[in-house]
Each structure stands twice: as C-alpha cells, then as structure tokens.
Amino acid sequence: MKNHLILICYIFLCGPLWSTTFVPTTLDKQLEHIDAIVRGHYIGKSYKKLYGGQVITEAGIKVDTHLGLYNKDLLNKNYFKVYYPGGRWQEKVYSVQGAPEFTKGEEVVLLLKRTSQGHAIANLSMGKYKVIYKKNKIYLQSDVFPNHPKLGKIPWAEVKDKVYMNFGSFLKAPNGNKVIVDTSRKKISSASRRIAQVDHKDIQEKEKNVPTFWLLVIFASLGIYQLKVMRKG
Questions:
Q1: Most buried of 87, 138, 193, 194, CB within 10 angstroms?
Q2: SS3 label, residue 33
C-alpha cells in the first residue's frame, strides 16, 4: 500500500513534465503574440542560473535579418543571445520537455518574446522554425510539426507577407538604418520618428513666430495712430 502511494505521488508530481502538449497553431496566430523575429545561424550555447534559482539555456545566434529588435539588443550581431528554460548547472541537468534543440550551424527563424531576462523563444519549440532549401526555393519548417500541411513547408514569400501584415515591415539586416520599435503592435521606423521630429521643430518655429507677428501689428497700429495725430495737428 505504501509503495502504491509513493508511485501515485511520483506520477502526480511529475505529471506536468509529461503533459507538455503542442497544438498546431498557424504562423499568423503565433505572430500576433510575439515581440521580435530573428533569422540566422545557431552558433552555440551557455547556461545561466537566475536569481530565483531557475536554470536557463542561452543560445547564440548569428543574426542575418531581424524585426522588432533595438540597436542595444544587437551589440553583437554575431552572437545574439536568446534563451529558453532548462539546461545544466553544476553537473546537474534541468530538463524541460518541449524545449528547443539546435544543431550547430543550422539556419533558423525564431519567434521571440521580450522579457526582463532578455529575449525568450516563444512557446518553447513552437517558436523555432528551420530554414530549408528545395529546388532553389526557401521554406520554413516547424520544429514541432515538420509534416503538418500548414506548418511543415511554408514558402518564404508567404512568410514575408504574413510578417508584413502583422508588423507593418519586413525583416531587416542588423546594420540597416531603420530601427523597429514595438508600440501597440505597430512598428514605427526611424524615418517616421525623423518626420515627427521635423514636425515638432516646425511647431516650435511657428510658436516663436507668433510673438513677432503681434509685435509687428502693434508697431503698425502705433504708426498709423501717430500719422492721424500729425494730420489733425
């Protein structure tokens, strides 16, 4: 009886580890809940233990193109860190079912969420897509559902359209002039900010010109009054 109770408790405690289940979700829906996208090559990984005791794995990506990252995020575009839960710390392995796995040098597209710790891969392995090439064409392949009719072979042209529909912009090279900012799901480019700055300067100039205009009106009125006085005299 005691052994049965121990077994039941073990199953109950470990159940959450076994119950990770992924449901096929279209790319459109996934894009609605992320903050950034990165396309690049996997370089390597390291482990980190957070203040609260959680162990995470930091994967290094050489970024080819991205969307949703700030310049400060890409201080090293050749080793941009993204993270996911689980890893190894002091010879102890912390396994998380559903965590993504990488092969050195593989080309991937990652869907990211911005957090206080950095950029996390959204929804574990669901946020990882492999870039595959077939007959001179580029496709994305879901790491979780490689054989799914809608997730296993998404044409790159279709991906770009979906990204543009959700973010209002395309993926850019890290050294591009535009910095994409996340503001209520609308991405505002640096060009738009420059236009806003110019408009603000115009308003300031107009405000400066208002007192000058009224001074001219006052002086003109005084001049007319003086002429009238002189004529009466």
A1: 87
A2: coil
Angstrom distances, CA of residue 204 to CA of 6, 39, 150, 191, 199 = 75, 42, 53, 20, 9
Of the given ranges (84-88, 136-140, 219-223), which has the lowest mean pLDDT?
Answer: 219-223
Confirm if 66 and 39 have CB atoms less than 8 A apart: yes
**138 vs 58: CA distance, rounded Å:** 27
* pLDDT for residue 108: 98
Q: In this structure, what token pair is assigned to residue 8?
A: 């039941």
- Distance (Å, whole) CA 173 – CA 161: 17
In the numeric block, which tokens belong to residue 67?
A: 């969307």
pLDDT recorded at residue 224: 61
Report the pLDDT value the prediction gives residue 58, as an integer from 0 to 100. Answer: 97
CB burial readout 109-136, b (16+ within 10 A) else e: bbbbbbeeebbbbbbbbbbbbbbbeeee
Query: Residue 127 and residue 111: Cα distance in Å, rounded?
Result: 5
The structure's pTM equals 0.69
- Please compute the mean of the pLDDT values over residues 135-156 and round it to a whole number: 96
Across the chain, how many H-helices and E-strands are there? Answer: 4, 12
